[in-house]
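Q: Protein A?
A:
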Amino acid sequence: MSAEAQSFWDSLPLGRGVRLLHHDANGLGAFDKPAGVLSHPNAGGDEPRSLLTVRYQLDGECYAWVPAPGQPPRRLWLLNRLDSATSGVILVASDETLAREIRAYFRRKQVRKIYQALVFGVPRQPTETWRDTIAAVKKSAQVRAVAGVGRVPAECRMTVVRPGKGEPRVSLLRLEPLTGRSHQLRVQCAQRHLPIVGDQTYGDFPANRAFAKLHGTKRLFLHSLSTRFEYEFKGQKHTFAVEAPLPEDFAL
């Protein structure tokens, strides 16, 4: 890798707590995004609490900035998104052609993503494949995902990592979505009476308040743990695999 390419990654204007996990020679990179950080600014003034603290171009789905007066502009393309409340692996690319290629892998469901979540309750089985249909429903001027309606399939593999003991019973789950629906994991957990701890949209609100009071934390306990896939670029095949360690507060 050239010194110029390394300098690009070393000098990124990262948001608060954002950490570069890995990047390869083609320009594909991964960050560990903390809970509460936006994948990209949604409105003016959002830049300080976003993945990068610079302007975002919605049409090109990329961050754009000039590092210093007289220097050429730089861009970083966002390849996937996480809800601001979700932490963990998020992918980017420093090359526009590569960005288009990797986005196609996401569309074809060729990217394997693993999440972990703390949920209230204990699943009936140690491993299950969850299959639902999900629809977007407008409620109080906001769009929410609802399971059990519509025709859009949502599928996920669930494995119990640590079953809940004591009170409240809080289990750690491994979740591998096989489809990529908005809020899919949060909705599928809630559908099975296993709401994710701290979920302010689909969760158990009294349980969330009690948990926050007991442990002093209000975050959504959903974490994008790892991403892995093989891709072809410029006639060569590559493997990209990255993991963002589970935050310490998941050990509760």
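Q: Protein B?
A:
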Amino acid sequence: MKRRSPLLRISFLQIFFLLFLPFPVFSFELSGNVSLQTRLFPDSPADPRQEHNDLSWAGEIELYHEFASGSSLTVTPFLRLDSADNERTHGDLREAKYLYLAESWELVLGVGKVFWGATEFVHLVDIINQTDLVESLDGEEKLGQPMIHFSALRDWGAMDAFVLPWFRERTFAGANGRLRPSFLIDVDQARYESGAEQTHLDLALRYSQSFGDADVGLYHFIGTGREPTLIPAVEGSELVLIPYYEQIQQTGLDIQMVAGNWLWKAEALYRSGQGRPFAATTFGFEYTFYSIADSQLDLGVLGEYVFDDRAAEFASPYNNDIMVGLRLALNDAESTELLMGLIKDVELSTWFYSLEAARRLGENWKLTLDALFFVDVEQADPAYGMRYDDMLKVEIAWYF
């Protein structure tokens, strides 16, 4: 029997959070954005089922209410409608949370978003929220995560404890979508190591503290791994990949330190339960030249390295890679910013080039341009299926 879609299943849980949290109707502050986006691919796709280009509309609304005590209620729904890929047409409740604020501790109940990490290109230690991969390949777009989040701040540091009662499956591009592996990932056939499947109770505990100019975070996570193993299977006459979510334990560390114009960054993890135990790390720097030639321009130079000792055993695009980049901020009234990046695989011939540019247009509009280029992608590289997916993404958004 075909499984009910992940979107439908999570909607039931999110509706539960909205209906049964004991709050009367409040007056909310309303903000959000509506955007129109096109992704243009100059080359024909590797799979003839894939559409050449796509056009999509997206909207995100934030409803916020703050109580007299300082506690607050936030609800943030998101929706995208895509012309080419049914899997990219999706909705999500990014947040639906009540924050209870006390003098030295706070409690979050509902659906929330939490980010951990320090580096620019790869976020190894970020594990609480599931990646919304149809939104972006950089791993920065996340699905809302049902949670109970307790945080306490003391002189010796901050402690965060998480109880995560519902698991979110990762999103992947469908048969008609671009930027996907050579073989289709069948999300409807996802499997779990735990018999509890999506209802497995995940736990996490994190300690963070500032030591002089350094910010340090250390955590341990026990539960369903957010990064699935992709298992080959045959459906009809087609070879597909089935996501398999194992039970893992992961310890993560992130460090960020400011030293004059230098910003040093590092992340590391150790994971067991997903094949053999392994370690991974990424570290690097950002050096900023401020007020270049007595102008308003700031230029940041970035360099990072990532290593994952699973190497070819696991389909990770980043297992031994060098990343360099430039970040330009014009510091003008339009908040114009530009980020250029290059990623080179140390062992393979594969190169990736990226460009991100953003500029405000007036008070309420924003124009964003993103470009991604693949060069000499070897067949052994997990990105081989995207070798023809050089892309220019143009988005115009209205904020209110």
